[in-house]
Amino acid sequence: MNLLILICLALASAVGIKAPVQPSVKPSLIVEKSETSPELVGFGSRTVDEIKRLVGAFYIDVERSSIGNGGFTFPGVHDKAQVLGEMLCNDRRAYESFKSRIECRRTGDLVVQMALSFESSEQCDRFLEYFKANFSDFDSFDIREGGGGGIIEIGTKGVNKATLMNYLSKSHHLQSLLTRMGYQGGKLIDARKTLSIIVSDANGTIFPQPSAKIPYQECNLKSSQALSSIIEYLEGGGFLVINSGNDPKRLGKKVIKGIPSEKKHLLKNIAIGAGNGHLLFVFNQAGDGVEEVVGYRKSVPQYLKAPQNREVQFLYLGDNPKATGNDWDGYLAAGFLCSICVAHPKNVHLVPPELKGRNFAGNDAATHLVFKAVVETAKEKSAANQKFSFSPETVNQIMGKMNATSKETT
């Protein structure tokens, strides 16, 4: 039994805030339009509070069965749910070392996604069953498994990593983004002309996967085994979109840590998708933070489905091979022939038929091989005066180079 939970329960017992035994409220998902504010896609406050309360109620049930009351009494057990849910809310960042927590990912005051972390994948699965049984409009959400296990990410129905890629698949959106960022093509690649970009997951892909050796706080670009090849790709003119479920400001800090001060101009070649497709951010002119591309958020409802004509080619990189994982929508948007999975070696057995032969075990170490092979291929195309793109044929060439240096493909 975690000491924090015991403290939370003891404190909550004294407060006695009532919460329904069977929470049943229609999610107050927001899609607002006005002349003075952009269209918003996210959660209303009632939905946020109800999910927090449900997590608290679930933990009280789990704690009760785990400790056999252990000296505690539980009269009106659900009275404690709201308080415990608030205490586990990661907005406070007070319990960073405690794995079980609630994180509200937001832009301004609007919550666009909630991430729930549990002690294990098994406990996470039990919560999903509890959530489904106790929330009458469970199907109103888009729920994906986060990387690393034991994490679920709850978003607006239909919004996921493919949403951002659907938006960027229209060339005028990509061109507009490149202009806003001050992007300049390089000697090897000019994204304005090639309309080909890399879209990548963050933790476990371009960043290390959190582990006992590398704690979550140190999983950034600086500690990534892929850093040198990513910089080489950016210096050659490559454009990278980090498409993650994480908080945009936190992602920005993780990237900035890895870019040397004399290479800060390379931040103009990196955009950040956050909240599993809900948000798009770019680095500010000073290179010390990020700012939102509000026009994307206004357009989200238009790109819940893939456009008929895709004008931009993607190479998608992710580490989660599962169809229920948050990378699956990225694989679908790019197409499996233009996707590469870099799953952790322990997850190789989870690789589905669609990704067979396209998985290189090793997380950021494997991602290093991807970017290295991309640069080598771009150099060959440039020397032969051939156009570079992330067509299925080119991706196969990239994978061929990876196969030559790695024996861990599956």
What does the model show?
By secondary structure, this protein is an alpha/beta fold. It folds into two domains: 3-156, no CATH class; 161-405, HAD superfamily/HAD-like (Rossmann fold, 3-Layer(aba) Sandwich). The protein has 13 helices and 13 strands. The protein has helices spanning 3-15, 45-67, 81-87, 121-134, 161-168, 171-181, 191-194, 227-235, 248-256, 294-299, 328-334, 364-383, 392-405; strands spanning 29-32, 40-43, 101-107, 110-117, 141-145, 151-156, 196-200, 240-243, 270-274, 279-283, 290-292, 313-318, 339-341. The protein has a seven-stranded mixed β-sheet, with helices on both faces. It has a four-stranded antiparallel β-sheet with strand order 3-4-6-5, covered by helices on one side. Helix 8 (227-235) links the parallel strand 7 and strand 8 (240-243). The chain is globular, with a radius of gyration of 22 Å. Mean pLDDT is 84; it is low at 11-25, 32-38, 66-75 and 91-98.
Number of contiguous helices = 13
Query: What's the number of extended β-strand segments?
Result: 13
Cα-to-Cα separation, first versus last residue = 39 Å
How much of the sequence lies in strands comes to: 15-25%
**Spatial arrangement of strands, main beta sheet:** 11-10-9-8-7-12-13
What is the second-level CATH architecture of the largest domain? 3-Layer(aba) Sandwich
Structural class: alpha/beta
The fourth-level CATH homologous superfamily of the largest domain is HAD superfamily/HAD-like
The gyration radius over C-alpha positions equals 22 Å
At the first level of CATH, what is the class of the largest domain?
Alpha Beta
- Major sheet: size, sense and barrel closure? 7 strands, mixed
String of helices and strands: HEEHHEEHEEHHHEHEHEEEHEHEHH
Stated plainly, the CATH topology of the largest domain is called Rossmann fold
Helix content: 25-40%
Number of domains: 2
Q: What is the approximate shape? A: globular
Mean pLDDT over the full residue set: 84
Q: What ranges have pLDDT less than 50 throughout 5 or more consecutive residues?
A: 11-25, 32-38, 66-75, 91-98
